[in-house]
C-alpha cells in the first residue's frame, strides 16, 4: 500500500502544477497585452477651421442640444417661439460679412451696439426687448456647424443627430461573452477527472495484484455507473436546479430595460432635455403623494394650445391630444358637448385640421388624402381599445405603464423627492436623454437596500430630521461625516413591508 499512498500524495501536487502553469500563461499574456496597450500612443483628434457653408450638421445638432437652443427657437426652424424662426437665416444675412453672423450668435448686443450691422438692428427692432443670450464659448467653426444643422432641419435634409460634439464618435464598449471559455474549461476538467479516476483504478488493480489478490478490473462503464458517480451527478443536478430556480424566482416580475410603445410618441428627450421642462411640472404628484401620477391632457394643453404642430411628427401626434380632450385647433377653442359627439363628427373636425395644415406647409395636394387617412387611423388606434370595448375617441389616453412594484412593497415618491431630496434620475436614469422611456433600474429589493446603505440623508435645513439630535451633535463634533438612510432605520422590514 506504500506505493498507492505516495501516488495519492503526488496527485494534488500534479494538479496544482497543471493549474498554476495555465494561470501563469494567462498572466503573461495579459501583462504583454497591457504593456503593448500602454506603449501605443493615443490617437490625436485633429482640429480644423471650418469654412463658410462647410459645417457638419451632426456636430451642429450636438451643439444645439448642449447650448439649449431649443428653449427659445423651434426645432423645425419654421415657427416663431421666444425667438424667431431660424430657417433661412443665412439668406437673410447674406448681404453682410460672414463675421457679422458669427458675432450675432456669440454676442448679439455687442454687435447691435456697434451699429455696423443693419441686419442686427432690424432683428433687434422686431424682437426687442427680448435679449438673445451670449454664446462666447462658440467658435466661428461651431457657428458653421450650427448653421448647417439649422439649414438641414429647415429643408428636411437632416433627420436626427447622430454624432458627438468632441471629435469622432466612440464605439460603445462591447461586453465579452466568456461562455465558451467556461465550457472548454469544464470539459477539460471533466476529462482530467476521468483520466485521474482511470489512473486510480489502475493503481488499485496493480497494488491488489502485487499483494497476491485476484482483483477484477473495472471498466469505464462500471466507473461511470457506480453508486458514488450516480450520487455525485444527482448532487450536481440538485445544486444546479436550485440555483436556476432561485435565480428565476428573483427575476420574477422584474422588467429592467422594458420599453413599450406608447399610444402617443411623446419624447422626453425633447421636453425634458431640449426644452428643459421640469419633471414635476407634469408629474406633480411626486412631491406631495405616494404616486408621481401621469399628467392629464389638460397639462399638455397648457403649452400645446399655442404649439399645435410638432417639430418631429407634425400634426400626427399632437392631434391625438386634441382629439382626446376635444380641442379644435382650427378654431382655437374647446368643442362644446364634445363628449356627446360621435366618432364620425370628431373625424370631420380633425381631418379638416390635418388637411389644411398639410397644404399650408407646402405638402403635395395629391398626397393629402393619404396623409389624412393615415393620421386618422393612428388617432383611432391610439385612443380606442378593442380589448376593453372602448370605441370612443373622446376620453383619457391609456398610457402603457412601465414601472410597477409588487403590491407587497410600499414606495412613496414624496418621501424620496421632498424629504430625501432625491432627483428623478437617481431611480429613473437619464430620462432627459430618452426618446422612448424605458425602465432604467432593476427596482429589486437588493438594489433598494444598497441605495439605503450608501445614500446619505440631507440633514442640513431639513425639518423632517430635527428629532435626530444625537446624529446632529455627532456631526457637529466631527464624530461622523454624515448619516445614511440605514442609520435612520432604512433597512427595517416594516419600512417597505408593513
TrEMBL record:
The chain crosses the membrane at residues 180-199, 220-243. Pfam families: Cytochrom_C. Residues 55-154 form the Cytochrome c domain. Residues 1-26 form the signal peptide. The keyword Glycosyltransferase does not apply. InterPro entries: Cyt_c-like_dom (IPR009056), Cyt_c-like_dom_sf (IPR036909), Multihaem_cyt_sf (IPR036280). PROSITE patterns: CYTC. This is Cytochrome c2. The lineage of its organism: Bacteria, Pseudomonadati, Bacteroidota, Saprospiria, Saprospirales.
Amino acid at each position: 500500500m506504500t506505493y498507492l499512498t505516495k501516488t495519492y500524495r503526488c496527485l494534488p501536487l500534479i494538479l496544482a502544477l497543471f493549474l498554476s502553469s495555465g494561470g501563469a500563461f494567462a498572466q503573461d499574456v495579459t501583462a504583454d497585452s497591457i504593456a503593448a496597450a500602454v506603449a501605443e500612443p493615443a490617437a490625436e483628434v485633429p482640429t480644423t477651421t471650418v469654412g463658410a457653408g462647410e459645417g457638419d450638421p451632426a456636430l451642429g445638432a450636438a451643439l444645439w442640444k448642449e447650448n439649449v437652443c431649443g428653449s427659445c427657437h423651434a426645432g423645425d426652424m419654421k415657427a416663431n417661439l421666444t425667438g424667431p424662426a431660424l430657417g433661412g437665416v443665412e439668406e437673410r444675412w447674406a448681404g453682410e460679412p460672414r463675421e457679422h453672423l458669427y458675432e450675432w450668435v456669440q454676442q448679439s448686443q455687442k454687435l447691435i451696439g456697434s451699429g455696423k450691422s443693419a441686419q442686427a438692428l432690424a432683428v433687434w427692432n422686431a424682437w426687442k426687448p427680448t435679449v438673445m443670450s451670449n454664446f462666447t464659448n462658440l467658435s466661428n467653426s461651431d457657428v458653421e456647424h450650427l448653421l448647417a444643422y439649422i439649414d438641414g432641419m429647415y429643408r428636411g435634409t437632416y433627420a436626427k443627430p447622430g454624432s458627438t460634439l468632441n471629435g469622432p464618435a466612440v464605439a460603445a464598449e462591447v461586453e465579452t461573452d466568456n461562455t465558451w471559455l467556461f465550457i472548454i474549461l469544464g470539459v477539460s476538467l471533466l476529462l482530467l477527472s476521468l483520466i485521474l479516476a482511470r489512473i486510480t483504478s489502475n493503481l488499485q488493480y496493480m497494488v491488489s495484484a502485487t499483494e497476491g489478490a485476484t482483483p477484477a478490473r473495472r471498466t469505464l462503464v462500471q466507473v461511470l455507473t457506480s453508486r458514488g458517480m450516480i450520487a455525485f451527478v444527482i448532487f450536481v443536478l440538485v445544486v444546479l436546479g436550485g440555483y436556476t430556480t432561485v435565480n428565476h424566482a428573483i427575476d420574477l416580475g422584474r422588467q429592467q430595460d422594458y420599453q413599450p410603445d406608447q399610444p402617443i410618441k411623446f419624447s422626453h428627450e425633447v421636453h425634458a432635455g431640449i426644452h428643459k421642462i421640469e419633471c414635476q411640472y407634469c408629474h406633480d404628484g411626486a412631491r406631495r403623494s405616494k404616486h408621481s401620477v401621469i399628467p392629464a391632457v389638460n397639462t399638455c394643453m397648457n403649452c400645446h394650445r399655442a404649439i399645435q404642430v410638432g417639430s418631429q411628427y407634425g400634426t400626427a401626434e399632437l392631434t391625438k391630444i386634441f382629439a382626446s380632450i376635444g380641442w379644435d385647433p382650427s378654431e382655437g377653442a374647446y368643442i362644446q358637448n364634445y363628449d356627446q359627439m360621435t366618432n364620425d363628427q370628431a373625424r370631420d373636425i380633425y381631418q379638416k385640421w390635418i388637411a389644411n395644415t398639410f397644404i399650408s406647409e407646402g405638402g403635395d395636394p395629391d398626397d393629402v388624402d393619404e396623409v389624412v387617412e393615415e393620421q386618422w387611423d393612428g388617432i383611432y388606434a391610439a385612443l380606442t381599445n378593442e380589448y376593453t370595448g372602448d370605441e370612443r375617441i373622446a376620453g383619457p389616453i391609456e398610457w402603457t405603464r412601465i414601472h410597477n412594484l409588487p403590491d407587497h412593497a410600499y414606495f412613496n415618491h414624496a418621501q424620496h423627492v421632498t424629504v430625501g431630496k432625491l432627483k428623478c434620475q437617481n431611480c429613473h436614469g437619464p430620462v432627459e436623454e430618452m426618446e422612448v422611456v424605458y425602465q432604467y433600474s432593476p427596482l429589486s429589493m437588493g438594489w433598494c437596500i444598497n441605495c439605503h446603505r450608501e445614500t446619505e440623508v440631507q440633514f442640513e435645513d431639513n425639518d423632517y430630521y430635527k428629532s435626530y439630535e444625537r446624529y446632529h451633535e455627532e456631526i457637529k463634533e466631527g464624530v461622523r461625516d454624515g448619516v445614511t438612510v440605514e442609520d435612520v432605520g432604512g433597512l427595517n422590514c416594516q419600512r417597505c413591508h408593513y
